[in-house]
Amino acid sequence: MRKSIRRCLYLLVFVTLLGGAGIIYFGFYCPEAVCALTSTAPRSRYKVGYLKDGINQFHLATDEIGRPLSDALRSATGLSFEEVTAHDFQFNIRGHDVIVFLHIQKTGGTTFGRHLVSDLDLDKSCQCHRKIKKRCTCLRPGKNSNETWLFSRYSTGWKCGLHADWTELTSCVDDMMDRIEDHDIKRRYFYITFLRDPVHRYLSEFRHVRRGATWKTARLLCQGRPATREEVPLCYENETWENVTLEEFMSCDNLALVGCYNISLMSPEERANTMLLSAKNNLKKMAFFGLTEDQEISQYLFEETFNLKFKVRFEQHNQTISDSAFSDIAPSTLERIKELNYLDIELYKYAKSLLHQRFKKMSNEDPHFQHHFDNMGHSQFSWSDIEDEA
């Protein structure tokens, strides 16, 4: 496994670290004047804004509601939760709307991805192919029946790279959709993802790496170029890091920087603060995100946000299974894991609060909410298989 998989790009969101510091799920908006090895953009183009909830952010000049003035940038990054849920807006599966699933490893994304292609109650269901492993065709009902409405691992494959981050997706999805459908049309994109408790996710990744996983095919780009081995060296010498000990896994250093491998641009504290604050802001912009630990709430929010219903109910992962993983871990080791993932932990606290805020808002406005939950059945799938997911 790599020493880190931290991507600092022109618009870096969803920074993924494989190793020392776990996952910083949503990265940051990194102005070129900060990220570039040689500054080429005047700082006057950028400013620090302050949201009502106290989250400051780096961003391009924005309009009166905080959206980037660049039409191309606004289109690429999709519509936010607030835009999707405002004024009776509806996801148009018959038009040119596309859900883009950003799959963060070890967060339950494989199971949720299966739900997307197998369990939605649609006029035209996805057709999954037995001869093509893990691939389904998800075409629209109606006149645009030759177009796909879902960009995900199971519907399109890893077209933008294995576990592509936000920057890779937003810079790749539209062009890739044009290639898949062999024509250029104007689409609306809706980015979704799932997050998981960082300590549980970290230990799950450790066990996965210990079994031989590497994610070597994941791309590591910076300002449009791949990172060199000197910039991002491996933590092991063999083909895999199979049978790695937890101590060895924790000792794998991470790049922990903002500045495209140039650590002189910011102090460690400034880098951490920039990433965390902007990560929270970027999370707010997602059309939908769910939490592995809050299955019923996550399912309800997805269904209400997109006006799409699942035929099965999500079943909450049995927490005792995850808790058992801590039984053989010394308290001092657990504290070290928390230290390594402290940014992720802070982001997760914010994510949980934000999820519950959205749930409260939607349920209060939903006249059928109580009936909805009174009639909830049981899922055919259990999230207890999450430990085996890629």
UniProtKB/TrEMBL annotation:
Gene3D superfamilies: P-loop containing nucleotide triphosphate hydrolases (3.40.50.300). It is a single-pass type II membrane protein. It comes from the Eukaryota. It is found in: Membrane. The chain crosses the membrane at residues 9-29. InterPro entries: Heparan_SO4-6-sulfoTrfase, P-loop_NTPase, Sulfotransferase. The keyword Ion transport does not apply. SUPFAM superfamilies: P-loop containing nucleoside triphosphate hydrolases. GO terms for molecular function: heparan sulfate 6-sulfotransferase activity. Its EC number is 2.8.2.-. PANTHER family: HEPARAN SULFATE 6-O-SULFOTRANSFERASE 3, HEPARAN-SULFATE 6-O-SULFOTRANSFERASE. 6-O-sulfation enzyme which catalyzes the transfer of sulfate from 3'-phosphoadenosine 5'-phosphosulfate (PAPS) to position 6 of the N-sulfoglucosamine residue (GlcNS) of heparan sulfate. Belongs to the sulfotransferase 6 family. This is Heparan-sulfate 6-O-sulfotransferase. It comes from Penaeus vannamei.
